[in-house]
Structure formats: structure tokens, C-alpha cells
# Entry
Amino acid sequence: MRLVKKISPAIENTSIDLFEDTIQNLDLALKYANIDPEAVEILKHPKAILQVSIPVRMDDGSLHVFEGYRVQHNDTRGPTKGGIRYHPNVNLSEIKALAFWMTCKCAVTGLPFGGAKGGVIVSPKDLSLLELERLSRGFIHEIADFIGPEIDIPAPDVYTNAMIMGWMMDEYSKIRRQRVPAVITGKPIPLGGSLGRDEATGRGVYYCVKELEKIRKWNPQKIRVAVQGFGNVGQAVAKLLHADGYKIVAVSDSKGGIYSDKGFDIPSLLYSKNETRQLKAIYCKGTVCEMVDADFISNEQLLELDVDLLIPAALENQITLRNVNQIQAPVIIEAANGPISSDAFEILYKKGTLTVPDILANAGGVTVSYFEWVQNKTGYYWPLEEIHQKLQTIMGREFHAVYRLKEEKQIDMRIAAYTHALTRIGEAIESQGTQKYFSRGMLQQ
# Structure
């Protein structure tokens, strides 16, 4: 393992683009947060960056070396927390930005964590399950000295799941010669996972929609919804909204999407997706399914649909200057991390689009991960109803705190959320002393 300060030029340029774009939100929020500027300066620099090489023996006997990262952004408010993603486009720029978002997300929700993120450059669909296990255990072997229940707690992210988290927890426990369930969250239930973790991010998005429903006095049956991304998060929020009567008129996965003005029966789409791994426009009674009329659309076309509510639940930078002028939805809830670039967001705000930012909207995942960490440390596990109730309380409380700040300051919800987060982080940093404190000289006896 090695701590790196310098990386290859290609990756470094990408890092500057994404990370610098992301932290611009801090300077904007500083105008409204009454904190010391030193707090902002600290948050502009990740605490530590780890780059590792992971040699994996493949099924055919060959050796392949994968590259991985772990970034700890800030631990002022507690141990760092953040997912691990497997994706061929993983790069340090992305991981730094995601770690920063996690710092802000934990502060927005009031969790006693800082932010971190990890990733491995790999196309997991090209690996066998045994190769995937070797890679997962190998990654933990390389970063074991960098993580821990009181240091940095990983979790699942894009293309990682509960089983992978179980392998990682087991590998860390072998290295430490003791069972350490609190080192990883998002684990299988029998290995110390928390009930409700699998749908927590989507459920958190759903609770944000329900708060907006109250504010805007929506009739769910008249609200047309498009969900980009039909993975774990997209499926969960679509299922919950459909059960409440919302009309889900479009959904998509990595291969494309489907659209029907009549709306879809979401349980049927879930059955098809999870049974066949394909997104099909069908209606099912039990296990008997039939095709229904629908238009095939691209992920880009889904974003541009004339709907009442748009939920990007895929990857970052889906709405940029390239397509922002074609976005018609008056309300967007960022279920993914960073689906709207900063410059595109500014254009949306100016034309009156209400955007619920990612650091608030998709914080349900890290919140229930916090619940899992607490349960692991106490050895006492909560029933599902209690977890849902606790999550709804936190999401509702912080949604209204951000919304009130938006109204009071006459700013958009993204800057309001960053202001809310920055205030909490700033208070923690100021508690350790800033120039204002130290310039006073010696303490009075």
C-alpha cells in the first residue's frame, strides 16, 4: 500500500475538474453560514488518500493486478464513512468528490461521521464470483491498516452488495484475529447487517418526496414520475411511490429505458428485472407476465421527458450544460451522487426548477449504515419498524431544516443543504481553535 500525493497526469486532470467543481459549493455556502473561513479551507483538502495495487489470481491461472483507492476526506465530527464501488471508470477525481459529499451528507443528517469513499477500477460483470471474492478480500487486505470501526467504515456502493461486504468484513476479521462486524456496514443480515439497509437510500428519497407532497399539497395520482436508474435505489423509490399512487411513467437501467404515459405496474417491472436481469414493459399476475405497450427510450431521453418529478438514480454528471436546456421537470430529486453539474444546476435554479440535493435526498443509506454500526457495537438489533421510524424522523427533520433555510435566505436547496452541513462542520472545527482563537494570545489564568 502507498499514500500518494502525485498521480498520473490523466487522472489528476480529471480529479481537478470534478473535485474543484464540487467544492465550489463551499464558497457559495460560506456566504450564508456564520463560520470561520478556516473550516472551508480545511474541507478543500482530503485528509488522506490511499492508492493500492491488488494482485488477483484469475480462474484461468493468470495474474491480474487491479488498482484501487480509498480517500478519507474529513474526520472532525467522527470516524469517516463511505462506500466502495467497483466500476471500470473509477478514478481518483471521482473518489475524492464522493468522499467530500459523504462528509457533507453526514453533517446534513447530524451523524457522528466524516466522509470517505473507495473504489476499484474493474468491470465486475467480467469476473466470475470466485474472482470477485478474491478481489474483494485482496482489496481489504491492502487497506486493512487504513480502516477500522473507530477510523473508517466502508459500505456498499455501485456494483458492490451485501455479500461483497460480508467477504470484506470476514477478511478484516481474519487479519485482526477477532470478529469485527462494525468495520463494514451493508452486510448480510446473518453476518450483522441491519434490517432495512437494502432499501434505505431509496426509502430516504421517498421520505423527501413525501415531505414535498405535504408542502406542495400534491395529489400523488396526478404526479408523473421518471426514474433514471433501476438498480437498488431506483427500484426502492419507484416501488414505494407506486404503492402510494404516484404514476411512474418512465424507468431506465444501463441499457436504456421504457416510457408509457399510462404508467407502469412497478411490481411487474421489479419481477422481470430481478428474474431475467432485463427491464421489460410487462404486467404480471403471479408468475404469468405479458408485454404492455411502451416506448423504448435512452437514458438521455428519459431525463428530458415532460414529467412532474424527475429522479436521477444512476451515476454522476447526467445533467450538464450539454442537455440542461432540454430538462422539463419542475422538480428534481437527486437520488444519485452528483447527477447534476454545478453549472447546469445554476441554470435549472434560474428557470425555477426545485432540486433536492444529493447530500440530503440520498442520505438514507448512510443513516441506516449508522444504525447498523450502532447495532454492531452494542450487540442489540432493532426491528424493521423501528428502523423505518428512526429514518423517517431524521430525514423529515433535516429536510425541513434545509427547506426553512432555503426560504429564510432565499437561496436554492443545494446551497441551503451545504450551508446546513457547513455550519455543523464549522462548529466542530472551531471547537479545536482557529486563528480567531489563537490570535488572542495566552489564556487568561
Summary: The longest helix spans residues 384-409. Residues 1-16 have pLDDT under 50 and may be disordered. The two ends are 47 Å apart (CA to CA).
